[in-house]
């Protein structure tokens, strides 16, 4: 018997149940990169709040929420995300290690993948910063 390779409309022509898998870090990083390249989709949603970072929830990427965050000058917060990118402004990643506190400046348009523990970001610049997180 020859299988019918022209079956259309089926996820699996053998009738097996497909299990949904969580997205890989690579897919999440590609999603953040693609979304950052389309500011027309989210720029109008940005809100500026002097009291602290403002988080705006965007659409879900494969069941993972996407957050747009604005950072006022001098403020910081812990980012509970697996992938993030700086869109505009200045942010620094602050890590507490057994050797002390390390502060590393972030570069715009570079996608960062985070491990545990979640990083803490702070805005050392004189203007607001904008970032995307998954």
What is this entry, summarized?
This protein has one helix at 25-36, and strands spanning 54-61, 64-71, 76-78, 83-88, 92-97, 100-105, 111-113, 120-122, 129-133. It starts with 24 loop residues before the first helix and ends with a strand. It has 134 residues and is mainly β.
Description:
The chain has 134 residues and is mostly beta strands. Helix content is 9%, strand content 36%. A 5-stranded antiparallel beta sheet has the order 1-2-9-4-7, with helices on one face. Strands 3-8-5-6 form a 4-stranded antiparallel beta sheet, with no helix packed on it. Strand 1 and strand 2 form a beta hairpin. 21% of the residues are buried. Residues 1-20 are annotated as: Disordered. InterPro entries: RmlC-like_jellyroll, RmlC_Cupin_sf.
> What is the CATH class name?
Mainly Beta
Distance linking N and C termini = 48 Å
Helix content: under 10%
Write out the CATH superfamily name.
Answer: Jelly Rolls
CATH topology: Jelly Rolls
Unreliable parts: none
Q: What order do the SSEs take from the amino end to the carboxyl end, as H and E? A: HEEEEEEEEE
Question: How many β strands by DSSP?
Answer: 9
What attributes characterize this protein structure?
1 helix, four-stranded antiparallel beta sheet, five-stranded antiparallel beta sheet, 36% strand, 134 residues, elongated, 9% helix, mainly beta
